[in-house]
């Protein structure tokens, strides 16, 4: 059975605690940024396939999302810039000089802003089902739904949706993928800690971004772009945009729903990603 071993570390940031996790202990450092609204723990479903790569994967619970981080956005609006500063604090705390970044969905927006800020320290970037430009998703019903929920202040409804989706879909899939039972129970407790206001503000802000100008300044960095052939057009279009702009890119195409990269990971796909990061 694949290993789900990890270490935890609490990091102080602006008088709040940020929960971080590390998988492995290799020389190559990779910062993994989660998809909405997951805890960084979900990357255990990816890293369990690491058997020989010289990699340490570091991840976190974003404040207000599923997880154990204290919510610095409790009395303030969600901020991508604040998330970048949190990541910088984590890299300092782990004494990381050179780093690769893997972002999944929502995480790709933070990835792009962080990589832009420390581009001289970036080794490689992995974009999984990215969303960086709202203009490539204007015809997607999800953007309209989130805008309506934001206008109507339906944050508690969003949290109920997240919890229900876990109970009826994610929990079964994660159990089938090998997440230990005790960790599965802990994960549900982490879901209950999420803050409705921050959940809604963060996803609304994601669907409002246009980060193309930042991406254009990262085109020389080796990039691996991954997307599912069956997921929403807005993610496929964003992936295609990154491929067009990047000068040194590789591609992986997978099958399944948008969430399946981490919920139903394939050993072959995960190994190819780890190979890319370890070279």
Please sum up the structure shown.
This protein is an alpha/beta fold and 279 residues long.
Q: How would you describe this protein?
A:
- By secondary structure, the chain is α/β, with parallel strands linked by helices.
- The chain has a single domain, classed as 3-Layer(aba) Sandwich (Rossmann fold).
- It has eleven helices and eight strands.
- An eight-stranded mixed sheet has the order 1-2-4-3-5-6-7-8, sandwiched between helices.
- A hairpin with a 2-residue loop joins strand 1 and strand 2 (about 15-25).
- It is globular and about 45 Å long.
Spans of at least 5 consecutive residues with low confidence: none
Instruction: Name the overall outline.
Output: globular
Gyration radius from CA atoms, angstroms: 17 Å
* Second rung of CATH, namely the architecture: 3-Layer(aba) Sandwich
Element order, helices and strands? EEEHEHEHEHHHHHEHEHH
CATH superfamily: Alpha/Beta hydrolase fold, catalytic domain
The average pLDDT value, as a whole number, equals: 96
Salient structural properties:
279 residues; alpha/beta; Rossmann fold; eight-stranded mixed sheet; 11 helices; 19% strand
Indicate the topology:
Layout: E1 7-13, E2 16-23, E3 28-33, H1 44-47, E4 55-60, H2 80-93, E5 99-104, H3 106-117, E6 122-128, H4 141-151, H5 155-177, H6 181-192, H7 196-206, H8 212-215, E7 223-228, H9 233-245, E8 249-254, H10 260-263, H11 267-278
Parallel strand pairs: 3-4, 3-5, 5-6, 6-7, 7-8
Antiparallel strand pairs: 1-2, 2-4
Helix pairs in contact: 2-3, 4-7, 5-6, 5-7
């Amino acid at each position: 059975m694949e290993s789900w071993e990890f270490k935890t570390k609490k990091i102080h940031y602006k008088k709040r605690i940020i929960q971080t996790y590390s998988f492995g202990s290799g020389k190559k450092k990779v910062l993994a940024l989660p998809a909405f609204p997951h805890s960084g723990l979900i990357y255990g479903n990816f890293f369990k396939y690491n058997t020989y790569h010289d990699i340490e994967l570091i991840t976190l619970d974003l404040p207000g999302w599923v997880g154990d981080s204290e919510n610095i956005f409790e009395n303030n609006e969600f901020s991508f810039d604040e998330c970048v500063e949190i990541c910088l604090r984590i890299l300092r705390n782990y004494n990381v000089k050179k780093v690769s970044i893997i972002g999944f969905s929502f995480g790709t927006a933070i990835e792009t802003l962080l990589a832009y800020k420390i581009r001289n320290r970036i080794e490689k970037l992995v974009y999984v089902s990215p969303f960086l430009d709202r203009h490539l998703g204007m015809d997607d019903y999800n953007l309209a739904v989130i805008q309506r929920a934001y206008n109507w202040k339906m944050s508690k409804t969003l949290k109920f949706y997240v919890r229900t989706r876990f109970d009826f879909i994610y929990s079964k899939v994660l159990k089938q993928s090998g997440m230990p039972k005790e960790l599965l129970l802990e994960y549900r407790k982490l879901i209950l800690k999420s803050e409705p206001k921050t959940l809604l503000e963060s996803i609304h802000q994601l669907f409002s971004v246009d980060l193309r100008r930042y991406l254009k300044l990262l085109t020389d960095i080796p990039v691996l772009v991954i997307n599912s052939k069956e997921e929403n057009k807005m993610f496929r279009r964003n992936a295609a945009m990154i491929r067009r702009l990047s000068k040194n890119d590789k591609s992986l195409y997978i099958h399944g729903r948008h969430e399946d990269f981490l919920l139903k990971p394939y050993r072959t796909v995960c190994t190819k990603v780890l190979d890319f990061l370890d070279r």
